[in-house]
Specification:
- The protein has helices spanning 9-15, 123-136, 159-173, 182-187, and strands spanning 37-47, 50-55, 65-69, 75-77, 90-95, 99-100, 106-107, 112-115, 147-154, 177-179, 201-208, 215-224, 227-236, 251-254.
- The protein has 255 residues and is of the alpha+beta class.
- A hairpin with a 2-residue loop joins β1 (37-47) and β2 (50-55).
């Protein structure tokens, strides 16, 4: 299984500084300015003027995650009542056609952003909140953690969205995030199989019980065979506009 080492927030912000230019948005006829190329993506996180975008292009993988700086970049909204970009928005980004192969990647010469009126889904934001809540529970398990493992492979998030959640988590926690299953990270030598522990790391995972139906899931953080915590039988509902309005924990377990 491929492993990605994600950048912390300082490098993320530095890599997100893009030159922005273009025509002013037309509110009566929202559209992208003329550009060499266009990326369609999902906004996974927003931090000030920085966007973290997961590609929605066909065949997009875990590494198809982009840092976009708004700066003076013109933004047009198909919904005239919307005035700011939100996590969950489906957007089109016009750019000059070049891509710097950093991680997250950078689009060269961004000319404008079009925020679509449909297709909103902020599941990335919901799962980031679950991971934040899990981190704050039984904080003794977090002591001395220098790196995180993350497995979202059993969720309905696309590979690119999974990668974007990993970047955002790295940004929040200011430490590297290694994506992969427990088995994969053990095979790579991060988790000690014999002692059944991760000395300087913490493994986080989310697993949906029915990825094609109602959202029910279990969230876990694991440090060793005798140091782990679970949120079990969690449920969440999505409203007609695509927003996931929080979640409910059915039970908790500890080892």
């Amino acid at each position: 299984m491929r492993r990605s080492c994600l950048l912390g927030p300082t490098l993320f912000l530095l890599l997100g500084l893009l030159a922005a230019c273009g025509e002013a948005p037309d509110k009566e006829n929202p559209h992208l300015p003329a550009s060499e190329a266009c990326l369609t993506g999902r906004v996974a996180a927003v931090e000030g003027a920085q966007l973290l975008v997961a590609s929605l292009e066909e065949g997009a993988g875990e590494s198809d995650v982009y840092a976009v700086s708004l700066g003076q970049c013109p933004v047009a909204y198909q919904d005239p009542d919307q005035g700011a970009i939100r996590p969950g928005d489906r957007i089109q980004v016009g750019y000059g056609g070049t891509v710097e192969e950093t991680f997250p990647a950078r689009l060269g010469e961004v000319t404008g952003i079009l925020v679509e009126a449909s297709g909103f889904d902020d599941l990335c934001a919901l799962y980031l909140q679950v991971l934040e809540d899990l981190w704050a529970t039984d904080p003794a398990l977090n002591d001395g953690v220098a790196q995180l493992g993350l497995d979202l492979s059993q969720t309905r998030l696309s590979p690119a969205e999974q990668g974007a959640v990993g970047v955002a988590l790295s940004w929040q926690r200011d430490c590297p995030v290694l994506t992969g299953t427990w088995e994969a990270l053990a095979d790579q030598g991060y988790i000690d199989r014999e002692r059944v522990e991760w000395d300087d790391g913490l493994f986080l995972s989310l697993a949906e019980e029915n990825p094609s139906g109602a959202l029910t899931f279990t969230a876990q953080k694991w440090r060793s065979g005798t140091g782990a915590y679970w949120f079990t039988h969690c449920t969440a509902r999505q409203n007609p506009s695509g927003h996931w309005d929080g979640y409910t924990v059915g039970g908790e377990a500890i080892s």
